[in-house]
Amino acid sequence: MMSSQPSSLHIAFFPYLVHGHMIPTIDMARIFARKGVKASIICTPNNASLFSKTIERDREQGYDISFLTIKFPSAEVGLPEGCEHGNSLYTEEMLTKFHKATTLLQEPLEQLLKEHNPDCLVADMMYPWATEAASSVEIPRLVFHGMSSSARCMFDCLYRYKPHKNVESDFDPFILPGLPDQITMTKLQVPPFIKEENQDAIQIFEAELNCYGVVLNSFYELEPAYIEHYRRVMGRKAWQIGPVSLCNKDNEDKLQRGGLGSIYEQVYCLTWLASKEPNSVLYICFGSRFNFSAVQFLEIAKALESSGVKFIWVVNTGQEMKSDEDNEEWLPEGFEKKMEGKGLIIRGWAPQVLILDQEATGGFMTHCGWNSILEGVAAGVPMITWPLQAEQFCNEKLVTDVLRIGVGVGAQEWTRSHERKILLRKEGIEKAVSRLMVGVEAEDFRKRAEALKEMAGKAIEQGGSSYSDLNALLEELRSIKSG
Ligand code: UDP
């Protein structure tokens, strides 16, 4: 065993079955395993296979990490057999069924916990019932938040004070009261599940109150005031142990992170990138789930072309687009030919952390998913923020208003995937691209982003804030175990 601290702790990790949650949970389990913990990742067979090579490599290096498979009740909720991954669902109806299926996992989870006897369960925020499952075998349950502390505090403020109810129009800005910074939002940017006081969502956030504590993928220096607010004002017991993506040290790990994508396409794109000048390429990716309409793709393409900036653009031309918008063109005629040498389109899965790490990558247009933001921060890359849904508008505020490492593209409203409309026009997109990549402010954004990169690296090193938080957590779990 190559662990730094011998320990007999056994921890089970149970990710929500979508990429944005599985990827950081797998990273986190690997980090714990490197600390000498026996790490068991509870996962369905198809999802486990996406990460099996990475886990196998860790095992070969002597770490005690493995999967415990659990059957996904697809048929029970009317989903096709084998359909066990949230990213492969495109209709609201399927997503509702998928979430319903996850609620049926409580009993099999309890069985697994009884059989394998871990000392602690780290389960995703999307499983509020996991605390009860952990109690059934008398072990503590930690919630894993895919969110930042700042977004979590902003959500708490929206739930608590409902400032969006005091404005007349959807466009009127209002301040989120009681937060460390003056954060403004509009009603259009507030998630519908908060505006509608959706009970499932409330249950998810309230589950934090009954569990042992919360583990977050962040680091103290990134959002200190919000981490303090979360701990002291909201009263949560929380450990920040990120950025977890930094546990991927070698290129093979980075290339296979997420387990998707063609090796040929990925290597081609990295070679292409290596031939470009430092900080000259804009990387554009809207995460693993969101899909724009063809008309919006066209606006992005036109903006890229007229900006003259080099780019790598990840597009998710999934099946739903082909069926809904069959023969609609999503790129201007001859676009790829015209852009040869200047721009590269990746259809499918990009090796994001590797791309962000490259010297040539000088900017990141992102949908503000928390993993993407943290990966951008860890690589020191300034960003163009284009929030779309979930808590992404809150993450945008952190990037543009608090950290000041990027520019907003001007996204106005919380939106659903595949809405057949233009959210932003070419002109606005082009303006943000120029501001980030060539404008006078670009250097300032880059300097601040570089400084955060350094802090992120230090946070996970011996003596750093995340390193110490992780040790403190392990210490506490050991003392619970020894009673
Ligand atoms: N990702 C990737 N390649 C892609 C798209 C996404 O590696 O082509 C990874 C990305 O690095 C991140 C995760 O998928 O770790 C997406 O998580 P995020 O929270 O940013 O967004 P979500 O997909 O949950 O909306």
Task: Provide a descriptive summary of the structure in words.
The chain is α/β, with parallel strands linked by helices and 483 residues long. The chain has two domains: 10-70 and 105-147 and 188-242 and 462-482, 3-Layer(aba) Sandwich (Rossmann fold); 254-456, Glycogen Phosphorylase B (Rossmann fold). It is built from 20 helices and 15 strands. The strands form three sheets. A seven-stranded parallel β-sheet has the order 3-2-1-4-5-8-9, with helices on both faces. A six-stranded parallel β-sheet has the order 12-11-10-13-14-15, with helices on both faces. The protein has a two-stranded antiparallel ribbon with strand order 6-7. Helix 9 links the parallel strand 8 and strand 9 (238-240). Helix 6 crosses helix 17. The longest helix is centred in the last third of the chain and has 19 residues, at 442-460. It is globular and about 65 Å long. The protein starts with 9 loop residues before the first strand and ends with a helix. Residues 1-6 and 319-326 have low confidence and may be disordered. The chain binds uridine-5'-diphosphate. Keywords: Glycosyltransferase, Transferase. It comes from Turnera subulata. GO terms for molecular function: anthocyanidin 3-O-glucosyltransferase activity.
